[in-house]
Fold:
Amino acid sequence: MCNFAVMRRIFIFLLMIVTLTQAHAQIECEDTCRHIHGIDLSHYQGNVFWETIGSSKMAYVYLKATEGGSRVDSKYKQNIDLAHRYGLKVGSYHFYRPKIDQQTQLENFMAQCRPGDQDLIPMIDIETRSGLGKEEFCDSLFKFLHLVERAYRQKPLIYTGANFYDNNLCGKIDNYRLMIAQYTKRIPVLRDHRDFELWQYTGKGHLNGIRGYVDKSRFMGRHRLREIRFRHR
Structure:
């Protein structure tokens, strides 16, 4: 009887732990809505279990390929091969450094972001003016965007924060599709009230197969994945 009582207490204790764990499990956005969701990754996420991600609710992934004139993400080649193997639609992005020669940055990006590997249009990550004045920064950026468009024969997707857009790019990139970052529960409203295709709504998402945090995004309204498909010619 004594052993039975001890086992019963252990069972009740374990049941309480499971119940509390379930009660405190974080509910992610993709669990509560029908939007098309995806993630972006770089070497910061370390080794990723792509088989697990391939069976998740994520439909697409943008992978960091390069930064500036010479930096290459150490996990890019591994990530893009495995992401394709497990069925995700894949795109690549470049972190733009305004003070570095545009052609040098393009060549760095193109050495990694090969058209035949892409399901989604290239994305340019724009987060800093690097100390340049607004006009000088815009001149630098537009030169680079035109080079990217000419090289890939399609306009890239622009990634930037809502505040950075309002303060630096408002009304200047109307011909480009946008992914806007704003980590709040409130949907971003840009100063010029322009439409945008994707919203990166958290930098602290959780996903089985990834240790630590991951950036998550989703399509807005009626926008769909086909709008950012890479056009192979």
Notes: Residues 11-25 have pLDDT under 50 and may be disordered. The first helix runs from residue 2 to 24.
